Amino acid sequence: MTNDCAPAVITILGSTGSIGESTLDIIRQHPQYKVFALSAHSNVEKILDQCRQFQPEIVAMVDEAAADDLQKQLQAQKIDIQVRAGAAALVEISIHEKVDTVMAAIVGSAGLESTLAAVQACKKVLLANKESLVMAGELFMQAVADSDACLLPIDSEHNAIYQCLPECGAGKAQVDSRLVKRIILTASGGPFLNTPLEDFAAITPAQACAHPNWKMGKKISVDSATMMNKGLEFIEACYLFGLEANQLEVLIHPQSIVHSLVEYNDGSVLAQMATPDMRIPIAYGLAWPQRIPSGASFLDLSEESALEFQKPDLARFPCLQLGMDTAAMRGTAPTLLNAANEVAVDAFLCGKINFSQIVLINAEVLSKIPCETAATLAIIQEADLVARSVANELINKLNY
Ligand code: NAD
Ligand code: MG
């Protein structure tokens, strides 16, 4: 069965991260997939180990000193792999003619340029880096339409929705509103679903990163704890599936078994269910339109506790409300929110602000900077820079 799937030559952007490692785990199980290039910010030890196992042709290290170090270690071990330094190398490995599939798994806005380049080069793009779509959704989806690239969502909710939209096909995901009534994004509610609100300010980075159902990178873990992640996913879904904000709803589902649902006009509701393991959506993306084993365990519903669903408490999770509001506004509003949130989460992880201040920074940045039409990449990049600078000013003020 495994080898019936089409072979592919793959670049992994962000191979040392949680999604990057899960992708390599699937590639290890399926020899028809070849790694052409890997990339990381600066983790030499991990990428060296990946080089030994997967023998890519090129490795891109964004940090120049880490690139030097890697080069020396590869030479010392007589491993013949080209090392490139700097962010420009991410684009080079995304658009390389030998590559047909790009896993976009860099965290944050740092992933935009290389992911967009992969789309423009008409690659099969497996999109985990939701921030690039949140930042530049209109432009990004226009690039998909212009290049005819195949864009497959890896975020588990969006992947679930994609699987429940069989009429989409051909790597396109626009919803036909004549058929679909609404889409329901599920959310676990994160580690603080039932924590008393008065305890929120004292939440530590370690507590915020301890997600009950998923093991992920630090940034998305904090976003899950504030539910900014669901806000970002709300925006992501609007762009990806061509939806208005009022066609989308969020439901808390603490067990993370139902990954999202599509309600059709006749009253049918299709859901995708699976154990919470990112190897399932990643394997789906790699093999699409076929299916391959992912290595994840199979779902035994008789062993599961009850599957619960409830409406989100927006007073408890105001970041979700910000995501829903900016999804309706469009333009640069999601760009501003994304940039403010990246700065605020970083400040929280470094101990500069407390957990409850993340949403204050995000809301304040949105209220201080007017939203514009996101007509060009230059406008988006400028909005991103301005939002970062305002967020940093606010954080510095909080610290005096
Ligand atoms: P992570 O922090 O574990 O890994 C991030 C990767 O990006 C690393 O390889 C790192 O070296 C690289 N990176 C970081 N900063 C960079 C920079 N400035 N330039 C270039 N590379 C840089 O993150 P993750 O949890 O794997 O998440 C990756 C993306 O996938 C995020 O956008 C996240 O929202 C999305 N996602 C993750 C999960 C999950 O389960 N982890 C689920 C859904 C979506
Ligand atoms: Mg998700």
Explain the overall architecture.
With 400 residues, this protein is of the alpha/beta class. Among the domains are: 8-153, Rossmann fold (3-Layer(aba) Sandwich); 331-400, RNA polymerase sigma factor, region 2, helix turn helix motif (Rna Polymerase Sigma Factor, Chain: A). Helices cover 44% and strands 15% of the residues. The strands form two sheets. The chain has a seven-stranded parallel sheet with strand order 4-3-2-1-5-6-7, with helices on both faces. It has a four-stranded mixed sheet with strand order 9-8-10-11, covered by helices on one side. A hairpin with a 4-residue loop joins strand 10 and strand 11. It binds nicotinamide-adenine-dinucleotide and magnesium ion. Nicotinamide-adenine-dinucleotide (NAD) is lined by residues 14-20, 40-41, 43, 62, 105-107, 110, 128-131, 155, 214, 216-217, 219-220, 278.
